Amino acid sequence: TRDTIEEYLNINGLPLRIIDTAGIRESHDMAEKEGVKRSISAMEDADLVIAVIDGSEPLKDEDIEALGKTRGKNTIIVLNKSDLISSEEQKRRRAAVNSALSSYSSHMINISAAKGDGIEELKDTILQSSVKNWKEQREGIIITNIRHKIAIQAAYDSLKEGINSIETGKPLEIIAIEFRDALDRLGEIVGAVTTDDILNRIFSDFCIGK
Q1: 42, 72, 137, 173: which has the highest count of C-beta atoms within 10 A?
Q2: What is the pLDDT of residue 103?
Q3: Three-class SS state of 190
Q4: Residue from 46, 19, 24, 52 nearest 36 by CA
């Protein structure tokens, strides 16, 4: 891979933009050097870096150098091809990576892309790392489910329309439709069924002129 390849992924409702890049290593080939340059640029802009190395082989100097470039980033180190070595050898590979990176802290997972081993753990780690990173960078509530986000936005829009209908003196039937729609949208999230009692409580808090 020399060019970056982008795909979109959804993990448990969390939308992610995944960028596959060229491997980071020294090269005298101009095209490959450009690919490495793009990889480093994409890595610097990323919220989460997934560094994949061949876990069936002893750690190479170029692996250590590439992993070192992720220092300071939210990173998951993936040791691939776990199906080719024993569990004891996997532990030795992990220990070698930890030793090479000394105090550098990151998640580390053994997987087999060929057999699917460790993929669910990787997905869970991506989800947790991404949400944690968002919480550290943003204030307020984080909505990780797209369906919930759409429902909340629709409820908000209906509430705005309902308030506008009150302020402009529209008939109560129109106002009730907007508020009922907002309640139905929220009900899609919590699984609740709205009732006339809820609408009555809402209207009791408003002073609606004739």
Answers
A1: 42
A2: 54
A3: helix
A4: 24
pLDDT digits (tens, 9 = 90+) for 94-115: 888 888 776 555 688 999 999 9
Q: How far apart, in whole angstroms, are the C-alpha atoms of residue 168 and residue 110? A: 62
Alpha carbon distance 208, 171 (integer Å):
10
CA distance 32 to 30: 5
| Distance in angstroms (rounded) separating the CA atoms of residues 21 and 23 | 6
Give residue 45's pLDDT. 84
Percent of the chain surpassing pLDDT 70: 75
Q: Which of 45-59, 161-175, 185-199 is the least confident region?
A: 185-199
CA distance 147 to 138: 21
* pTM greater than the 0.90 cutoff: no
Q: Give the bridge partners for 79, in sequence order.
A: 53, 110
The DSSP secondary-structure symbol of 22 reads: -
In the chain, % helix, strand, coil (3-state, to 5) comes to 55, 15, 30
Cross-strand partners of 109 = 78
